[in-house]
Design a protein that fits this description.
The chain starts with a strand and ends in a 9-residue tail after the last strand. Helices cover 31% and strands 23% of the residues. The protein is globular.
Length: 321
């Protein structure tokens, strides 16, 4: 077994802004694992919010000593981007060595397309109105918010897309007071859920204030160990492979979250189709799917995922799995 990791950059179609800052490119790490003439690949997006960088995650991956399997990997690396890329590469490698699809290896039903949200980045109200209008035919819009001055943005998006289904992501940008003030307006404007309104670690107020629409944990939910602290505060969890540390833990988290009574959202960082491919398997039957990363890119990988009116389609074997 030979493992390698390399950095790659994918330019975005336009600048993408959230409450923590803006970016014009997706910087990812690609892991390749070679064994017996077969190659498995995985992708991760190191995230500064979780103390990760391209350099730190590369060092984690390069510190691994092959050979190892997925079970051993769960002990060798903590949840996070490094384990994600390696775990997904191991799934892909096993699929290619066995001649079976990953969904078969995981004991899952054959995957189908899933309707995915399309994200509008945080901008001035006029720009967000124009973006909402241009994307109004899409089945589900996700709005990036998270500032004290979000009401004009909310109103502008609803004006631009009067009939669209809308969800909101505050990216930890509100206080309990701001959220309590905004919540009735979110309901009035037909918003279906709000994602991570309060900072992780400062979200206990969610158990004390009214939740007139479902609240989804993103930064507050990483893996199964996160779930006990979310009870009574959140109605839904956002499963991202870069947080869980790969497909293996993501599938386990999905099952345990359902058993604990949470609804499930499956999301992504801004990455290529290679990063989204395993997440499509987790998204099967999810309450909300948000796997639009490749739609935000100016250029994707070869054999990209297919997006159409049916949603995001499962990957072809040439891409992954």
């Amino acid at each position: 077994m030979h493992l390698s990791v390399s950095a790659e950059t994918f330019p975005l179609a336009r600048a993408f802004t959230i409450s923590r800052g803006a970016r014009t490119e997706a910087r990812v790490l690609t892991v390749r694992i070679l064994q017996d003439g077969h190659e498995g690949r995985g992708e991760c997006v190191p995230y500064l919010r979780y103390g990760e960088s391209l350099e730190s995650v590369t060092a984690q991956i390069e510190g691994l000593q092959p050979p190892f399997d997925r079970t051993a990997l769960q002990r060798m690396l903590p949840p996070g981007a490094a384990r994600n890329a390696v775990d997904c590469a191991l799934w892909d490698l096993e699929a290619r060595r066995s001649g079976r699809r990953v969904w078969e290896l995981a004991g899952l039903a054959p995957p189908r397309p899933e309707i995915t949200a399309y994200t509008l980045s945080l901008e001035a109200p006029d720009a967000m109105r124009a973006a909402a209008s241009a994307n109004a035919p899409r089945p589900l819009l996700k709005i990036k918010l998270g500032t004290p001055d979000d009401m004009p943005r909310l109103e502008a998006v609803r004006q631009g897309a009067p009939r669209a289904r809308i969800i909101v992501d505050a990216n930890e940008g509100w206080s309990a007071e701001i959220y309590a003030e905004l919540a009735p307006h979110l309901v009035r404007l037909g918003v279906e859920l709000v994602e991570q309104p309060l900072p992780s670690g400062a979200d206990d107020m969610l158990s004390e204030i009214a939740r007139p629409l479902p609240v989804c944990a993103d930064e507050s939910c990483h893996d199964r160990a996160s779930l006990p602290a979310l009870r009574g505060k959140y109605d839904m969890v956002n499963i991202k492979l870069d947080k869980t540390g790969g497909l293996t833990e993501a599938l386990a988290l999905k099952a345990e979250a359902r058993a604990a009574g949470f609804e499930v959202m499956v999301g992504c960082m801004v990455g290529s189709s290679l990063a989204m491919a395993p997440a499509v398997l987790v998204a099967q039957g999810a309450d909300v799917t948000d796997l639009d990363g490749p739609l935000l890119l100016a250029q994707d990988r070869e054999h990209p995922l297919r997006y159409d009116a049916a949603g995001v389609h499962p990957p072809e074997p040439a891409l992954w799995g």
